[in-house]
From TrEMBL, chains A, B:
PROSITE patterns: RHODANESE_3. InterPro entries: FAD-bd_OxRdtase, FAD/NAD-bd_sf, FAD/NAD-binding_dom, FAD/NAD-linked_Rdtase_dimer_sf, Pyr_nucl-diS_OxRdtase_dimer, Rhodanese-like_dom, Rhodanese-like_dom_sf. This is FAD-dependent oxidoreductase. Keywords: FAD, Flavoprotein, Oxidoreductase, Redox-active center. Belongs to the class-III pyridine nucleotide-disulfide oxidoreductase family. SUPFAM superfamilies: FAD/NAD(P)-binding domain, FAD/NAD-linked reductases, dimerisation (C-terminal) domain, Rhodanese/Cell cycle control phosphatase. It comes from Novipirellula rosea. It comes from the Bacteria.
Length: 569, 569
């Protein structure tokens, strides 16, 4: 770098990662020339807030503008250029080809350091009608304005949301709050496919309780348009059709990597721009952050894409510093921690689900508990289900999921923090969390889950999955008769009666009635949530039974879809 | 142990630690004889819930009985003996001398393993009148019933609470909710003496806003009684008196160690029963848990008493397992994590405060940030102040305090979890927390605090404490003129005007007006909360200034008590 010429940092993309990079670069280097290129008209807007403006929870559109170009110029002396689209990178000469939106003029901008934060684009279905005026994805303020205009239109009565991921669910919530008849279509047999099925179920129940038509295991096969380039009907893979005034597509995103690919930068195995620990690409003068980049994923140690705002912001800040000064801390691993609120139920997760871990060939085990967010004797306690996934042998935490009322975010954040330290379930059982009756319990749900996992590792107790095949097992339901009658255990063999069917013995009677059970049979105990099952399992194990406790008890098992609940699955 | 004689585990104390020990021991060992001795009539009651029953937030007294003796007998086959007071331990013959409350009969109970969970007793002031009928501490259900009866009496108008620790504050909240004129007296010049003064201040402000008379820096010097053994007036060290119908003493607890001392068990330096990693005392057949025991404290690695329910429950569980089976995991370190809600403000803390760390000679540094609990653009965001204390050189986290609205518990739990792993502020800056607008921010308050600490360690930015003496400093207030007029910076030299007084330059004008400042003077920048101060400090530092940023800005500084706010302190 010439001493008389300031360091020039060019940043492609001005939202989460790009804006963080630019402002940190400025704070680290007053003299650098920092050019922020953004193809859209807005920078640094609150992309996670967009659904809530459509739903009018955030009434003022301006509050979505976290930082305007003018603000960034004034406070950070950034050279913010909106409607400037980067077209190509000339790595040889260290310059970027840019199209200026107003004039379509092509210019070249030199860089010393280049930070790519181009984000991702919504996947559009390859169907006629996908370009209709009322078929929209939600990615930026322009999308927001267009969707909101349709929702605001008093003629609009019906909406179809395609895809039950985070954005799809948030849009369903907001559209219902705006009074639309809403249908949610999802290809997978569950909402939130990143979660294990039984953990996603309470979200599905909640949206059905809000009279959303939930159509799982179906895809959109056609979009019927009228003469005005409006879709009026959505056709599904099962042959059914839904009349609609609005289609919101939330079927995922694809990283914007064309610029990187064309420039010959290395692309990782998950299709994002490959990065090192300082978010440098295969060209050390070029960084990549945000949805288009790959991160090191904590549970596996492997690099992968993580389309979340938190890592984007932190990686942008880090890349901005490194670009401006040549040094920074290494980028920490990312756990993929996320949360979504859907009406009165929230779901949070971090790391790997059990299903994903098993798909990847990881030797994963799990425990599931049902507990309250604070002391049960203090009014207003809300129930959550917490599932902890860990390496079966070592106990290293691989992930967790929580679904329920208040406090799911806190528990997942605590577990994600333990994962940042590559912690084990044993260490998690020792975390010292704040407790007062309005906030938690002396034994927090996090502790209860960790204790259960440690019991399993130590051979003190073995759990079976909530969807286990109970055929041929001696199933002992240790709840009271009244509870069993109210909520029978689903998916059971010969439920309720008969030999080798369910045997009902309340836990408090188990020691006296143990002779009613056959110690030679593989035995499953179940209760409402697993606590009494734990006690029963310990009693039976010490009497020589080969016994497992049904994880999460009837509460979680009854969320599993069995072909027929009272027959062999 | 004779094969025909079962293992006998005797537990002294049947509340948090003792009850956890007993039930875990049973789950681990069906054959053991487990005797739970409790001198009071109740076991396993919700001691943290007692204030809320007095305040009628928990209307049903029975809901405080987490587990009755009958329940523990039925479900866990525990030999629960209430009103049984352990008087002495005969270690030679492994037996405990016990007085049966109903008959005062003395019996001896043999043990193979003994678990001491005797708790702590409220400290009573050494004053005439301290035994009056309306001078009460809150430790058990009997205390609760007596206090509640007085509060329920329509004649009761005035209450004095002595001690502004957790119980004192919770009682103030509940008494106010019951309509009493309440006075809070505290010896220290602040509420919550475990917190740094400026962090405790919002709690003081909140209780004063609820029209509680808050008398700091004063002690009770006398209790004036009437002929009915009722205190009618409380005399204070400043010579003033307060008429009252009820006095609640919350001036701390002393561990119940007489049994252990008399038995010759080792007592630790903090006055609790010394324990090893398995909660064994100096006699390996005797364990100690709960408020009477010592734990290994994470921030210092030293053993100390920690009078909190969470560690008591976890240590009890661990000791119960170890006593029943001869093995368990080691007891993890304890961070002293706690939380209290006082009307609309909550305070949570973990580890060491800055003041405590410095008193202990630890080379502690700190940063303080002011941030919202979730995205500011999403409605209902609440402000919190978060202070992070760490080892100045290594960055190892020593503690944290958070005060404000919703979400302080979550941030402290995340930091406490990082502390469990002996984490540094650098690692804390990398935790991957869940984010959606209703739950958090892409850069969480935890990140912001950790980033600030890392900046300080890396020499990127230096903070000065909110109570720093600004005399002789070039103080630059980078807020707007309107903000400064609304909320002047307190405790400033020659505030507002004059040479070497405060110089007002809005951050956005700083680059252009930098010639107005003298780079040879030690310089302090301040804004509202520290963010603009950070930007300003970076600008000035890169221009050769020796500059520090006022931690937490005017918001936190204006909570500090200065002798006179506009003169040299």
């Amino acid at each position: 770098m010439n001493a008389t010429k300031p360091l020039t940092i060019v940043i492609v993309g001005g939202v989460a990662g790009g804006a963080s990079a630019a402002t940190r670069a400025r704070r680290m280097n007053e003299n650098a020339e920092i050019i922020l290129l953004e193809k859209d008209p807005d920078v640094s807007f609150a992309n996670c807030g967009l659904p809530y403006h459509i739903g009018e929870e955030i009434p003022n559109r301006d509050s979505l503008l976290v930082a305007t170009p003018e603000f960034l110029r004034r406070r950070f002396r950034l050279d913010v250029r909106t409607r400037h689209e980067a077209l190509s990178i000339d790595r040889q000469n260290k310059r970027v080809e840019v199209r200026r939106g107003e004039t379509s003029e092509i210019i070249w901008i030199d860089y010393d350091k280049l930070i790519l934060a181009p984000g991702a684009s919504p996947i559009r279905p390859n169907l006629d009608g996908a370009d209709a005026e009322n078929v929209l994805s939600l990615r930026n303020l322009n999308d927001t304005d267009r969707i909101k205009a349709i929702v605001d239109d008093k003629q609009t009565k019906n909406a179809v949301v395609v895809g039950a991921g985070y954005i799809g669910l948030e849009m369903v919530e907001q559209l219902v709050q705006r009074g639309l008849n809403t249908t949610l279509v999802e290809l997978q047999p569950q909402v939130l496919p990143l979660l294990d099925p039984e953990m996603a179920r309470p979200i599905a129940d909640e949206i059905e309780a809000k009279e959303v038509s939930l159509l799982l295991g179906r895809s959109v096969s056609g979009l019927v348009t009228n003469g005005n380039n409006q879709v009026t009907e959505v056709a599904l893979s099962d042959g059914s059709t839904i009349a609609t005034d609005l289609v919101v597509m939330g079927i995922g995103v694809q990283p914007n990597i064309k610029l990187a690919v064309d420039a010959g930068l290395e692309i990782g195995v998950t299709g994002g721009i490959a990065t090192n620990d300082f978010m440098q690409t295969s060209d050390p003068d070029i960084y990549a952050v945000g949805d288009a980049a790959e991160y090191r994923f904590g549970p596996t140690g492997k690099r992968m894409r993580v389309s979340l705002a938190g890592p984007a912001n932190r990686a942008g800040r880090l890349a901005g510093q490194h670009a401006a000064t040549g040094q920074s801390d290494p980028m920490p691993t990312v756990q993929g921690t996320s949360v979504v609120r859907v009406f009165g139920v929230s779901a949070a997760m971090t790391g790997l689900s059990c299903a994903t871990a098993k798909r990847m060939g990881v030797d994963a085990a799990s425990v599931t508990i049902v507990a309250k967010n604070h002391a049960g004797y203090y009014p207003g306690a809300q129930v959550m289900t917490l599932k902890l996934v860990y390496q079966a042998e070592t106990g290293k935490i691989l992930g967790a999921q929580a679904v329920g009322g208040a406090g799911v975010d806190k528990r997942i954040d605590v577990i994600a923090t333990a994962m940042q330290f590559e912690g084990s379930v044993r260490q998690l059982g020792g975390v010292d969390l704040s407790y007062a009756p309005p906030f938690g319990s002396a034994k927090d749900p996090v502790h209860m889950a960790a204790f259960a996992a440690c019991n399993q590792i130590d051979g003190i107790e073995t759990f079976c999955d909530s969807d286990a095949d109970l055929a041929g097992k001696q199933v002992v339901d240790v709840r009271t008769a009244a509870e069993i009658e109210r909520t029978p255990l689903s998916g059971s063999p010969l439920a309720g009666t008969s030999e080798k069917g369910i045997i009902a013995i309340p836990v408090d009677e188990l020691r006296d009635r143990i002779s009613e059970l056959d110690p030679s049979l593989p035995t499953v105990v179940s209760c409402a949530v697993g606590i009494r099952g734990h006690i029963a399992a310990r009693i039976l194990k010490q009497h020589g039974f080969k016994v497992v406790n049904l994880s999460g008890g009837a509460t979680v098992r009854n969320r599993v879809n069995f072909a027929s609940s009272n027959e062999h699955p």
